[in-house]
Amino acid sequence: MTRKEQKSRKEPEYDHDTPTEQLANQAARMTKMDKPAVEVVKNESSWGEYNLPPSKNLMLKKSKEIHQQLKNKYTGLKNQLPYYASRVCDESLQDDRLVEVGFPARYCLREVEDMHSLDFSQNLNTSSYVNVVAEPEEEEVALMGLKVNLADQTVYPASFRMHNKCVNIVANLWNCPKPKDFDNNGGTYAGAGTVGSTEACLLSGLALKFRWRKWYARKYNKSEEEVLSIRPNLVISTLYQAAWEKLFKYFDIIPKFVRPSYKEMKIDPEKVGALIDEHTMGVVCIMGNHYSGHYDRVDLVDAIVEKVNKEKGLEVGIHVDAASGGFVAPFQEYLPPWDFRLKNVMSISASGHKFGEAVCGTGWLVWRQKERLAEHVAISVSYLGGHADSYTLNFSRPAAGLYSQMYKFFRLGREGYTQITENMMAVAKYIRDEIKGMKGEDGVTPLFEILDDGDKGCLPVVAAMLNPDLHLPFDDVDLQYALVQGHWYVSGYAMAFEHPTQKTQLALFHDQVSSKTMFRIVVKSNLTIRLAEHLVETFHGAIKYLFEHGEGYSHFPHKQVNLKRSNYVC
Questions:
Q1: Which residues is 257 bridged to in the sheet?
Q2: Taking a C-beta distance cutoff of 8 angstroms, is the pair 533, 213 a contact?
Q3: Is-contact 164 188, C-beta < 8 A?
Q4: Helices (H), 295-437
Q5: Between the ranges 93-97, 317-321, 543-547, where is the mean pLDDT highest?
Q6: In this predicted structure, what is the pLDDT of residue 283?
Q7: Which end of the chain is more exposed for a tag (fewer CB within 10 A), N or C?
Q8: What whole-number distance in Å separates Cα of residue 446 and Cα of residue 475?
Q9: Residue 102: which residues within 8 A CB-CB, separation 6 or more?
């Protein structure tokens, strides 16, 4: 169609996608019509019912007038008045439709800041593992990274070299052996930066699944199509994080759970061995479960896996979920091997935004090698002006997390990460000792039972439960709410989980009922000893309050705590 023909072409009136109909809709809302504007516009007989102009031209004119009134309302101030003296601040934003006319920039900033002010204080949130510390210089580099799309390696080659440098740093930190194809792979270990450790866990699970399929087809002389109908299983502790629930649900993988003891929250290697069969694609070991901070004994599991593989002719591999421990364990002394020093460890994942100290949304995954692992999840991209391999589930993503992680690697170095780890462990010990010393009303019986792994060889986490021998009328969730009065957020939860595929509520531990509760305190780098002293004071005040009002809790039936795992895994 020529330009002249386009100009002469008559557009249909009140088409659903035209600006005319949009304005008509606005007029309808302003006149409080209870029917869609397009319906009224097309039905002239209904105009009188809504007291609208008796012609389409007047209808359009009225719409434009209303639109101009809105525009004048929000822009007529020309930024002269402070936000709280403007008409914008008394407008309800409950309407989920896009505003008709944009606000001045400083008004938008104030709107978002006011919304954020209703959140809990991030510095007093001991429920989450996510880092909240960023120097001004780190914020600058993160802002710089927001404008960089890491998926476009040809346009941002230097940024992607930075990505590969971070992968190499992490791989060396976890003692990854240099693979045979290291030089052919651009001098980079097989790995990827991810959006948190969830994406890393999903990628590692997929690599194990595809690796198992190839092995199963060879072992039992089956075609690839025949293997597609067989679901593999994954052996894992019930103390898993939400990422693995996504893997089971999204990728048709059967979970085989090992229930640990609540007194030692680590996976039992012997039970792992009993669950492995020809459909087992892998075993997950957790370096720092989010309930108590315990490290699974990866070395003992590795020995069991090696034994079972030899006895049954299997090729089961181990993935180490080091979401929290990946940037703590390398800086702790006297730990047994847990990383790529062990033969059957195929991959390791971690959250850079937890104890890696980067901004939220940063994760890392390293495979032992590309062959028969990373190669299964790689795709080749050529439509962006060059050739590149992508190992991630999502494609376009900002480089903010990468830039932040690179900054922290430069800023802290091994010495800085070691000192931060020692500081956090020391603060955790102080809190743990103070809680241990608290007594019941008789002044003799301990008020709390400590559930974490102690002062070393674990995450800087304090986990405990109110002493069940005291038969108190309140529980650890009530304690959580009482602590909120001192502005502290401490996570309390039931010892139960929801089966990811069967949707039934099950006990986390083999030796404790699911109705029991516990709590945890995550000690991050921002939780200094001075803040910890205030937290302990708040504990004393909360306990005093609960004892004074304890009978008020006794008439409640057992509390149905929200068991959704996503509330507790951060």
A1: 236
A2: no
A3: yes
A4: 298-312, 400-436
A5: 317-321
A6: 98
A7: N
A8: 15
A9: 74, 108
